[in-house]
Specification:
- With 212 residues, the chain is an all-alpha fold.
- The chain has one domain: Up-down Bundle (Four Helix Bundle (Hemerythrin (Met), subunit A)).
- 75% of the residues lie in helices and 0% in strands.
Amino acid sequence: MNGSQNPILTFLDRFLDVPEAKVTYLTRVTPIDRFLKKAFLPLLPAHVTPNQITKFRLLSIPFIALLLALDYYLIGTILFLFSAFSDALDGALARTGHKISTWGTLYDPIADKLLIGTVATIVITKYISLELALAIIILEILLVASAYHRYKGRVVPAKTMGKTKMILQCVGIIFLLFHILFGIPALLVAATYTLYLAVVFALLSLLVFRSI
């Protein structure tokens, strides 16, 4: 075994064993991807792959959950910000570097949904409402089930509507975490409206645009 290889990533490689076949669809590079390529991707070590970034996000989820559940909101928020930002980084690295794979296409949205669902369970339930948290979680489950049924288990990429929903969910949760940290009522209002808007986009994704 290579001594420089991260044992955690090695474990995840074995536990989440999916063939690395290239996906047969074309993914358009967005202006955000180009910005991230110039501003942030050069900061990453050359050996880092999009799948490793996704694995970091998966690995971070239980730590974020534990920190938020124990009211360590500052550290939990910082880790959540890194984890949420890694979603943009792995996508930009995959698209601009032509490194899109079956593994990444499958587990990237799973990591997103686990991250959002976990944080929603803890903080949205406590600071906004149980109903909103349940709506977000149930819609995410329905989106995954619907996509699996439509595509008969085949791996499909997240589409624009689904990504917009994810961005709104992250922004809403960030507003909420900042409200918890700084006690600014306007942030709670902004979080509530943003998260309800995310629910609207989730419904559109499910019923109209067929996007995960």
